């Protein structure tokens, strides 16, 4: 969208994301929104200096209730519209239904659910329907609360364990992107491992073309494929994709 806007001769692209852009001595920086409950900076860590100078976030300095009041003042028909909680463009807010409708049945194969020792506990309905940390809807009787701790798509295998077994401290991050320059040495920052995850202190170290992240306190359900985003208080430093959980 930004590329198209610039091609049309526009100077800026305004979006409805809850985030802020500030200009500092070293250039542009991306910051969390005023409304911490609606902040969306987690999704925007790939923005670069060249992009930030052309982007506006008009909602960044408002809370959601304030935005609704403004919408009423401007007589916008969406002023009272209910918020979507899931993937907003999917029918029925259900990605499982979406996948079942579009994927061949062969790609949603049943498979085993095992514990950390490899003991079979039941069958899953297809690895695409499960997430790391999931407890509900497993359909197995383990005699104790269990959570998904590992998903092996190649083997069509799901491993479950206790809540403690779903905790991890270290992982690798690939496909890195930084707003103000890459990390050249070990630093202490705060890290979010998914949108609704609270920032948590961690040590971040260069690891070849990747980064190794080590939390001070073990975190629940670190999930390969999710983004890990690095913060210095309310400022976004950068981020990448979680590749592998180490321990």
Task: Classify the secondary structure makeup into a structural class.
Answer: mainly beta
Task: Output mean pLDDT.
Answer: 92
- Tell me the fraction of residues in β-strands, as a range: 35-45%
Strand arrangement across the biggest beta sheet: 9-12-11-10-13-14
CATH fold topology of the largest domain: Elongation Factor Tu (Ef-tu), domain 3
Question: What is the tally of helical segments?
Answer: 4
Give the end-to-end Cα distance, rounded to a whole number of Å: 40 Å
Number of individual domains: 3
The helicity comes to: 10-25%
CATH class of the largest domain: Mainly Beta
The whole-angstrom Rg is 21 Å
Strand count, sense and barrel status of the largest sheet are: 6 strands, antiparallel, barrel
CATH architecture label name of the largest domain: Beta Barrel
Unreliable spans are none
Which term fits the overall shape?
globular
Number of strands: 14
Fourth-level CATH superfamily of the largest domain? Translation factors
Any overview of this molecule?
The chain is mainly beta and 247 residues long. It folds into 3 domains: 2-73, no CATH class; 108-162, Adenine nucleotide alpha hydrolases-like domains (SH3 type barrels), CATH 2.30.30; 166-245, Translation factors (Elongation Factor Tu (Ef-tu), domain 3, Beta Barrel), CATH 2.40.30. It has 4 helices and 14 strands. The protein has helices at 2-7, 49-52, 64-73, 95-102; strands spanning 13-14, 19-24, 27-32, 55-56, 111-114, 120-124, 147-152, 157-161, 167-178, 187-192, 200-207, 210-220, 227-232, 235-245. The strands form 3 sheets. A 6-stranded antiparallel β-barrel has the order 9-12-11-10-13-14. Strand 13 and strand 14 form a beta hairpin. The longest helix is centred in the first third of the chain and has 10 residues, at 64-73. It is globular and about 60 Å long. The two termini are 40 Å apart. The mean pLDDT is 92.
